[in-house]
Amino acid sequence: MNEKEKREVALFRYSLVSPLLHNYENHKDYLEKMGEKVHDVPHHGERRIAAKTIQEWFLKYRREGLEGLIPRGRSDRGQSRRISPDQQDHILD
User: Fold this and answer.
1) What is the spatial distance between Cα 79 and Cα 85, in angstroms, rounded to a whole number?
2) Which of 47, 67, 68, 86 could share a disulfide with 60, CB 3.0–4.6 Å?
3) Which of 22, 3, 12 is nearest to 62 (CA)?
4) What is the pLDDT of residues 45-58, one digit of tens each?
């Protein structure tokens, strides 16, 4: 995902947490309602987003601002998640 796409996802996430920031609704009711909906997530298509995830985004936004809502790459990208490098070397030998 390029930087423009990441920014679009961050803005989408902000659109979900914004009502929590401005106290438009009761937090619990809002999170339950949003968790039941199917959302059109930029570059990912239609997805359900758990209430807990929206709550985590809200907390990240309060700590880090919009930068906290930008998707991060996996720290283990390109590495096997099932076997260690030593095990992999042993198998390949």
Assistant:
1) 9
2) 68
3) 22
4) 888 999 999 999 99
pTM: 0.72
Please name every residue paired with 47 in a beta bridge, in sequence order, or none if there are none. 39
**Domain segments of the chain as ranges:** 3-69
Record the tokens describing residue 35, joined without a space. Answer: 């968790």
The encoded tokens of residue 22 equal: 């401005």
- Closest among 90, 24, 17 to 54, alpha carbons compared: 17
What CA–CA distances, in Å, run from 70 to 31, 82, 91? 20, 27, 38
Residue 60 tokens, joined:
């990240």
